[in-house]
Amino acid sequence: MRGLSYSDRELLLRVFDDLKAAWQGSDQEILQDSLAWARHLAPRFGFEHALIRDVTALSRYLVNNKSATDITAIARGGLLYVRTLSRIC
What we know:
Blueprint: H1 6-22, H2 27-40, H3 47-64, H4 69-88
């Protein structure tokens, strides 16, 4: 698997920023939606366990690092991205 380039990372951060700017809800809503997504994910190929682990880690960063705004902003953006994808699929 190819790693992310710097331009890939920059694009992801811009997408996260756009999602955060459009979001009108609370962090609690993001966490609830992430939990619902994880509960409904049916692991079939094995990589789904890693996705659930990553969403869990992002959720933990969002809850436990309120003073570290960069970390919480990236976690919030990542969880909003998952939320958006779960509504599309």
